[in-house]
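Sanity check

After download, print the first record. It should look like this:
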Amino acid sequence: MIDTELIKKSVALMGGFEKEELEKYDSFILAAALSVSELLDEDTDETDARVIRLAAAKAYHSICCTAEHADGATSFTAGEITVKQDSSAKDFADESLNSAIKDCRTLLKSTSELDETNGFAFLGV
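Expected structure tokens:
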């Protein structure tokens, strides 16, 4: 399994988390480590920086999605004042995950869920 401490360090850098704050997301980090481990080719080194980055990006993406969902409303207007929630963290998480997936393409099993060639195509009725 991928070293969760290395993933935590990367997630902390991505989100600007303090060590204590990051502890509440241990389950996200563990899930990302297990998930990415299952997707790797059997001869892939789990200490490869690209693998750590992929697991961290996956964990950070989950954290951002949860935080966005928990916050509820993304904007509201009161009279002439409009308040809109900044979605830059979620956008950054999306970009980081997509970039990490691209960087790891050669390290993943060809049957992995991230492999674009294994998609479903509805061709007609």
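If your output differs, re-run the checksum step. Summary of this record's structure: The mean pLDDT is 83.
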